[in-house]
Structures are given as C-alpha cells and as structure tokens.
C-alpha cells in the first residue's frame, strides 16, 4: 500500500493460503504482474525502506544524549528494565533533550513518575 502503487493484490501466488491470505474465493489469486509493474513495486519498496532508514538514523543522531545516558547505565548495570528506560526518556524529555523529527519533545510517552528539577533547570 502506497500512493504510487495503491492498494492491490500483487503477484501470481501459487498454492497455500485461503481467501484471507491474499487469495480470492475462487482460488485464482492475484493477476500476474507486468515487468513494468514489478519495477515500479521494486522502486517503491526501495523508496520506503530508504526513507525509513534515514528517519531512523536521524532520530538516533538527534537523540544522542539519550543514547549516551543509556550506554552509561548499561556499562554500570549490564541490563536496563523497561521502567528504567522510561525514566531515562522522561528525564531527557524534562530537560528538553528528547527530539522527534524537527520538534523538541516537552513530555515523554509514559507518565506516572515525578521528575524533580532544580529551579535553574525549570527556568
């Protein structure tokens, strides 16, 4: 599913699977794909994968502070629980160091803990 290809069943699937596994009720499956459509699908898959790879790398670079804090904690304890990770994320968000896209996040996704900040940090 993409704006370029649309929502369609692609490929001539052989055997296996019922009507809810990409096949129709008559067992015909999807119509065969032309070479041009195969190239279009391949190009769209490459575009989506490249776009998401770049997005992931940008998020990692923008949140290096959080990764460094996580690395420090892992060096000390060897493993980090989900709760500890959420505390790190909340701390980074409270300090204004959590970044999502071009926006600095003011809050983290998990609430339920109080993070104490000094008057200087709050100002």
Automatic annotation (TrEMBL):
Region feature Disordered, mapped onto this chain: 1-33
GO molecular function: ATP binding; ATP-dependent peptidase activity; metalloendopeptidase activity
InterPro entries linked to this entry: Peptidase_M41, Peptidase_M41-like
Residue ranges constituting the Peptidase M41 domain according to the UniProt record: 1-88
Superkingdom of origin organism: Eukaryota
Pfam families, sorted: Peptidase_M41 (PF01434)
Amino acid composition bias (Low complexity), ranges on this chain: 1-11
GO biological process, one term: proteolysis
Official protein name in the record: FtsH protein
Source organism: Symbiodinium pilosum
Gene name, Swiss-Prot/TrEMBL: ftsH
